[in-house]
Amino acid sequence: MRKLLALLMVAVLVAPAAHAVVDPDPDGIGVYFDLDANITETLATPAVPFNAYVILTNPTWAEIHTISFSFNINVPPGMEGSFFRLSYEVVLGCIDPTLVYHPLYGDVICGGSDPIPGAPAVILLRWQFMLLAPMVADFYLGQSNMPDPAQQLAYESESGWVPMHVSSGDPALKVATVNGTGVVPAVTTSFGSMKALYR
Fold it and tell me: How many other CB atoms sit within 10 Å of the CB of residue 45?
């Protein structure tokens, strides 16, 4: 009986940690290969579909009414035709206004009739891809290149536009990679740990 209680307590303590997103800061945005916003690097083989998601992490507001961002997927030169997009769905129900058919880059500026409720990991965009040849593909997110009301990487809440930060810390750094490495992990540095560096 004691063993059963001990196992139950461990399961209760571990379960909440399993749903924690990798980026602990509020209002983050990244590309992930899981629904809980934890996996930023994955392996993919040719002819086997895989999913990727643009996810808003830890929003500070209860509802997301409109989203504004751009995406760019870098593949080796000459391999663009071997990176195939099978599906593309913006969760708010609208589509990419200008570049919907291009699998490697685009602007997403849209709002739906029903807002998305806030959660630790809010899926904004769902993709399914397939490689036709072995390659590395790096994902980047940033501010939309189109004129839009936000004029920044942001989502609109019930009280106005809220800036988002990319999970890598800088739009010039990749937020996710397929068959690659080197994604910058999102970490929070406490004042105490910073102070310890200079002792």
Answer: 10
CA dist., res. 62 & res. 118, Å (int):
5
* DSSP 3-state percent helix, strand, coil across the chain (nearest 5): 15, 40, 45
How far apart CA 158 and CA 114 sit, in angstroms, is 12
Where in the chain are the domains?
22-179
Question: Rounded CA gap, 96 and 117, in Å?
Answer: 21
Query: Is 22-179 assigned to CATH 3.40.190.10?
Result: no
- Reported confidence tier of residue 95, pLDDT bands at 50, 70, 90: low
Q: Is 179 helix (H, G, I), strand (E, B) or coil?
A: coil
**What 3-state DSSP class applies to 44?**
coil
Contact predicate 134/178, CB 8 Å:
no
pLDDT of residue 153: 93
Residue 112 has a pLDDT of 75
Q: Are strands 165-166 and 28-32 parallel, antiparallel or unpaired?
A: parallel
Closest CA to 53 of 74, 30, 87: 30
Which amino acid, residue 5?
A: L
